[in-house]
Write a structure and sequence with these properties.
Layout: E1 12-20, E2 25-28, E3 31-34, E4 39-42, H1 54-63, E5 74-82, H2 91-104, E6 110-113, H3 118-126, E7 131-134, E8 138-146, H4 156-169, E9 185-189, H5 202-211, E10 215-217, H6 224-232, E11 234-240, E12 256-260, H7 270-275, E13 282-285, H8 297-309
Helix pairs in contact: 2-4, 5-8
Amino acid sequence: MSKHNSVQIMPLILEDALLSAADGLVQSGSKIWFHFQKYPWDLACPEQNPGVGEHRRHIETRLTQGLPDPKLAHVLSGTYHLGISPHIYSYYHLLADLLPHLIASQKFPVLVPEFMPTQFIDLLKEAEFEVQVLSPEFFMVERLLIPEMNFPDWNSEKVKLIQYFFEKIVPLKSLPNSQSSNSEKRIYVSRKLAVKRHLSNEDEFLPLLKKHKFSKIYLEHLSVPEQVQLFRSASHVIAAHGAGLTNILFTPADVKILEIRPVLTSGQFCFENLFSLGWPGSEHLVPPRSGEFALPLELLDEVLERWQGEPKT
């Protein structure tokens, strides 16, 4: 076993677990789990549950939809990894929540939802994980392994685990030409195709980015291996807060990063936490006008001019 696979992952192992495949809610006896192990709850001992906060809100909202009905459950015999959670459609949560668990655990089939993007399923299959896509019904699973959830999302061991995994799945030599790994790309990740958090004045600041030799990229048009290859050669990355910034995992340590956040606390500082583990050239901007996700040209220009004058380390 590789030293990278010796990372301690603590899955929860349940027997005869009731699963709602629509969103990953799991019930065993009087206890339920939601968002993998992030939100446990004891139906029989309410005094043991959080009295206030995000944890309680998530569970109480979910309980209004009812619990899995064992009478309607299909039986799944054998041992499985749970790969279903409400946010598993997100590239960020695939890499932060599920993939480290699968890499470090014994291989069993992975249960995933119908709403998981096809390219994520293709990635898991390419990595030789057996994937079973479940319809949004109820299942009684003979033995179920639920991924651990920690706060903060990232630590140095998890980063190394993910990086080593992708070195095997997307080898450096698989780049289109021998010079690609040494080229320096300035990337602007556009979220114009995203449902939310797209910068409203993108068309206004694109000429400024072009002046500084940035290329606009739509990550929705790239496969996961293509994204990994692109960011391996990045020298500068500008992006609104969003899952695409998870690709910083694959950039050189001296990359310059500008994260544009709708509010200072976006994502509970998840990317700030990630970048602190190996990418010191990161910074963020929060647009000054509340309620408007627009990037003032003078703020962007200030960053770009400063970057231009900084020597490459």
